[in-house]
Amino acid sequence: MQRLIEGTRALGLRLTNRQVAAFQLYYEELVAWNQRFNLTAITDYEPVQIRHFLDSLSCLLAEEVRQVLSRPDARLIDVGAGAGFPGIPLKLVCPAVRLTLLEATGKKVTFLEHMIARLGLQHTTAIHARAEELAHDPAHREGYDLALARAVAELPVVVEYTLPFCKVGGWVVAQKGESGPAEAWTAERAIQLLGGELHRVLAVELPGLPEDRSLVIVEKVSPTPEKYPRRAGMPGKRPLGS
Description:
The protein is an alpha/beta fold. The chain contains 11 helices and 7 strands.
């Protein structure tokens, strides 16, 4: 895990031996399960450390994320968690956070449940559902301090998936590539409709991450109207503000 260890130093983190062992186990299980479930196209040792683990932890470059995850009662939802990125890596370095991993594909949820057990993650739940449906559940609607999304969809769609989960005063952080600033501009209308406010776009610069990366940071400033998110499939077919 040397590439991960070196990369996290740039974040001001020093991984413990126990954390390094957890990331190693995560890698081994990911590769083993990927032979059956096709969880990711990236399986080589160093690329997983950089493009999955370190990229997930790059969310900590945002002070807003650090502040939320420093609180013992903070609730985090990873929307479209896939194989657990960025939620599980963040949980491994911020173990006090209460994490929900939301994923619509059943096989991936099975893997997430397996990893929660193998890593012994406390206060962590994997849910098999669509964001458009779960965001209307009173147990989850406007109940989270932070919602994260990585490589899910275009930003107007991402904010309709995520902002309804955030409480007023909470944050959405979308991990984006070089298109981040342009997407943020095109999504401003959607953000406003959903009760959010574009806070900033933060450039991500970490050793080993090859292409331009960015974090689009949105603050929840007012409640999301009850009609959002729209029914399953609609956010992608007819993005807000388009």
